Amino acid sequence: GFEVLGKDVNGDLTTIVFTCTTLKKLGSTPNRGFASVLRVLVDNADGIISITNPLYFEHAFLQADYDEGASTKILAKLNSAFAGLKDSKDSLKSTKLGHYHFMMGMPYYEDMQTVGKGDNASLIAKAQASGKALFTLNLGNNQTLIGFDLDDDVASFVGTIGKKNGSVLPYTVLIEGGKAKILAAKYDIALSYPSLKMGQFMQISATPGKIEKNIASAFK
Fold first, then answer.
1. CA gap 74, 177 in Å, rounded
2. Does pTM surpass 0.85?
């Protein structure tokens, strides 16, 4: 019941992005499109497969609309398809996920950044013409999610702070209401690296701005 949308290769890491009917339904309301996909990270060097946990990311991306029952069913399907999955050592209390931010002064889920404006069809066409669109997912309700292939020098932050959470790539762009929007990178990276320390974050302090600039260039 899962549908593979595309993949992103960064050195030894390959991220496979997938969806299903339930995920698309959960992500088909305004500002919720980021919840419509999950990812499999294949570490070819160490021979490890990891899968993003729907209980974690759906809670974060759906906020007050989180449907634990639906997310639990998706997790059960994943456990059935991939026998022997184990919980990650990285964790975050579920009570924090609905209003998560890295620390005081850092962005929340709703603090999305607009990287392009125009009618939806033109924005989609620009993304696809850029050669950076790894997948395009039509969610209905005039919503489209696009997986964006970041330039290698921008994507290299994964090697700096830990490749085992590298499924944060490809970066996703939500097109709706005449805007192309991304999650603030200071939010999205920290969410994907729940054990991230401030010292590690400072090592990639320029990355959030680079991500926004890299994606915005496709919509000029």
1. 29
2. yes
